[in-house]
Amino acid sequence: MTDLGDLLWFGVGVLVLTGLTVALATWARVGLGLAPATAIARAVVQLTVVALLLRGILSVPWTVVAFLALMLATASWTAAGRLRGLRHGRRIALVGVVAGAGASAVLVFSLQMVDFEVRYVVAVAGILIGNAMSAATLAGRTFARDSRARRDEVEGWLSLGATASQAHDEIGRTAVRETLLPNLDQTRSTGLVTLPGAFVGALFGGASPAEAALFQLAVLSGIGLTSIVAAVVVTRLAGRTPYVVVD
Question: Does residue 32 form part of some domain?
Fold first, then answer.
């Protein structure tokens, strides 16, 4: 879609869908305001920049390192903003995102599940970093919410001589489980309820259905590891202080 007319028509489609989203949210009084529109506007700008950057990255492979660092920094910053309710939330978010995405990416390529080529590195790393950000955010917010709600229970454990980690153990395990459930449900329904983006993208890129399925399986298994590493790291680090929630 490079023709100007096609691009303009595509833009009209985006505006119609976004406008309907805002209108329905307003009618339902869900309190989102113009958030859906601003989110799409940001996505348009960011994807345009990324598309331009990728043209250079794919032609000069070594620049992929800087691009991955940018993605990690952005994901960590976003997750950190959501975890401001936790003590040391920014540091915890950074460690969780880097650990989750890094562990999975290293294994996916070390085990040769996906060819170690620039385009695959960018694609797989982008997916894993995004899921690490989501897992760190969800786990941290669930942990903070439950810690606040069960503060008396935590104080009871502390008064009995338990360490901060022991007092928050069950809260942390619950947060990790709640974080993983959406991903597990999506994985179970893959191919029957949904055709995931990696699979569809591989097909559009010219891969055979079998190759697309293998690529999707590599991504799904990587997402599973990414999510649990990020969630466990965030909850374990957050639970090390007696009062993890910032008053």
Answer: yes
